Structures are given as C-alpha cells and as structure tokens.
C-alpha cells in the first residue's frame, strides 16, 4: 500500500532535513555529550516531532526506533503526565534495552498540559536524568514552566523560509513526477503558512490529480473556499465599488454551506497574498476582518453581517 506523502517524506535522519545546519550541528554536539534533555520551540509545521524522532535514531545509530526504550506521553489535556505517573516511574526504573545508552521520554506540545502535570515531568527530569533523556516540544514557551526550561537545552526553530519550502517542492515533484507551474509553486508557498506539513499535503493532492498543475487548479483545490470567488468579490467591492455585486458574490459563497466565520477566516488568508489591493488598504481590511471575527466570538453570527461587512470595506477604501 502506498504511504501518505507525510509519512513517505518525513525525514528519518538529520541529513534529510531542510533546516539550517546550525540546528543539526547543535543536536549532534548534544548527542556526543550524552545530554539530550531538550525542549524544541516552534510553530506548527516547523518539524519539531520529526526532529525528535530523528534525534532518537541518531542517538541509537539505528533506523527503527526501539519501542521498549522510548515512552511517548500523550498530552491529554485534563489527565496530562500525572495520568501516566506510575507508568513513567516504572519505565524510568527499568534498565535500558541497549547497552551503554539511555532511554527516552517524549512529550510533544508540553505547553498545552497543565502546570501540575508539567511539575511531574520536571520531577522526573530531576530524579532520572542519569538514565533517561527527556525530549519535549512546545509552540508557546510562555506556557512552559521556568523550572522545565532551566533543566533543558532550549532550541528555537525559526519559521521555514521560502528557500527551504522551495527545496521541499523540488524534491517531491521530481520524485513523484508532478508537473507544476512556477506560479502554482509560489501560490502554495504563500498559503501554507510556512508549514511543511501543509505544503506536502498540497503536493499529494496534485499527485492524485495526475495532470499539469496550473495556478488556476492550485487555487481551486488548495483552499476551502475558492480563491476565484474571493477574487471576484474583491474586484466587485474594491475595483468596481459595487455593493450589490459584492453582496451577491459573498452570499453565493454563504449559500454553498460556509458559515460567516468560515468566510471571514478564509478571506483573512486571501487578503494577505492578494495582489489586487495595496498594502495600506490591506491593513484596514485585516483590521475590519479581525473586528468582525472578535464580534462573532461573543455574539451570534448572522449572514446579514456580510452585507454590513462589505459596506464597511467600501466605505473604508472611499475614505482614502
């Protein structure tokens, strides 16, 4: 059975990563020091989980991670690590199955477990670091307690730059024989929010189509709401200054089954890469979108608000 692209192209060893080499050099140094209490910090899609698993392979110098030597702790928000207290204790007290090597405890997204559970994790580090390595990851370092931060080497992963994303596209399109136009490549790099995971998902969609991928095709299949509809909507209210035309288009989007919040969220993403609108007006539009989203988080949303939203956009632009 063919593996999903995310599994197929997940880096297994350090040399397969398309991140800055300084990260790899640091991790190799920590392996040589046998000091792998590490907290990886970075946005979703920056490769934290893949780096953790690759670090285990590099440490043991094998391709298959030894299951008996690695304990993965699920970040169950209510239960947290305290739910695994006895299991963790037993795991830490038993000997490593690989002579001369420590075991590993892995906790992804430690920032979403409660402080009490983080304290349990901290206690494990204090008590068992002589025989167990502790690898953790988080998106928000502010939600990770100081006592864990002080016991780990903190590695902040930068957002993936366009050059790195382009390398991923080049590698996969070559291996999978995907015919994709340069414009479509730029488009998916713009809308993937610097997430390699999302970028690979887009490429898998292209592979399944089995046809040349143009910018038009990419716009149709890589967004929940067609960017064509948003382009027509933007031309209606921004270029033509036509409130009735804009309302008709955005109501047509609503009638396809999308909620008002769906539309505003997607339009927010569209505006960021839209080349129809100048930067000053983009700022005003994004401000309007955020106001409406905040409003709907506290009050019940209604499709009539799309009329007021469109009217507000036109009036703001006319104020220039």
UniProtKB/TrEMBL annotation:
The name under which this protein is listed is ATPase AAA-type core domain-containing protein
Residue ranges constituting the ATPase AAA-type core domain according to the UniProt record: 38-154
Question: What is a single cellular component term in the Gene Ontology annotation?
Answer: DNA replication factor C complex
The record's listing under Pfam families reads: AAA
Listed A to Z, the keywords are:
ATP-binding, DNA replication, Nucleotide-binding
GO annotation, biological process: DNA repair; DNA-templated DNA replication
Natural source organism = viral metagenome
Molecular function as annotated in GO:
ATP binding; ATP hydrolysis activity; DNA binding; DNA clamp loader activity
């Amino acid at each position: 059975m063919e593996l999903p692209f995310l599994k197929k192209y997940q880096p297994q060893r350090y040399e397969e990563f398309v991140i800055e080499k300084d990260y790899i050099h640091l991790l190799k140094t920590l392996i040589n020091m046998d000091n792998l209490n590490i907290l990886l910090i970075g946005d979703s899609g920056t490769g934290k989980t893949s780096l953790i698993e690759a670090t285990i392979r590099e440490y043991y110098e094998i391709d298959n991670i030894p299951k008996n030597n690695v304990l993965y702790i699920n970040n169950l928000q209510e239960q947290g690590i305290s739910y695994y207290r006895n299991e963790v204790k037993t795991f830490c007290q038993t000997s490593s199955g690989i002579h001369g090597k420590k075991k590993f405890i892995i906790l992804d997204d430690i920032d979403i477990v409660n402080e009490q559970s983080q304290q349990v994790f901290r206690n494990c580090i204090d008590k068992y670091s002589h025989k167990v390595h502790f690898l953790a990851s988080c998106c928000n370092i502010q939600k990770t307690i100081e006592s864990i931060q002080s016991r780990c080497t903190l590695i902040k992963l930068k957002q993936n730059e366009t050059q790195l994303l382009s390398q991923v596209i080049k590698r996969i399109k070559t291996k999978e024989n995907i015919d994709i136009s340069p414009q479509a490549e730029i488009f998916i790099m713009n809308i993937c929010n610097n997430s390699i995971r999302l970028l690979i998902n887009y490429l898998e969609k292209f592979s399944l189509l089995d046809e040349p991928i143009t910018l038009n095709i990419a716009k149709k299949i890589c967004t929940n709401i067609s960017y064509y509809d948003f382009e027509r909507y933007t031309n209606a209210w921004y270029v033509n200054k036509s409130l009735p035309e804009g309302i008709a288009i955005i109501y047509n989007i609503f009638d396809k089954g999308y909620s008002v919040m769906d539309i505003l969220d997607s339009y927010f993403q569209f505006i960021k890469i839209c080349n129809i609108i100048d930067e000053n007006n983009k700022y005003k539009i994004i401000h309007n979108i955020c106001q409406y989203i905040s409003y709907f988080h506290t009050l019940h949303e209604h499709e009539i608000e799309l009329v007021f939203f469109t009217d507000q956009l036109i009036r703001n632009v006319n104020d220039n």
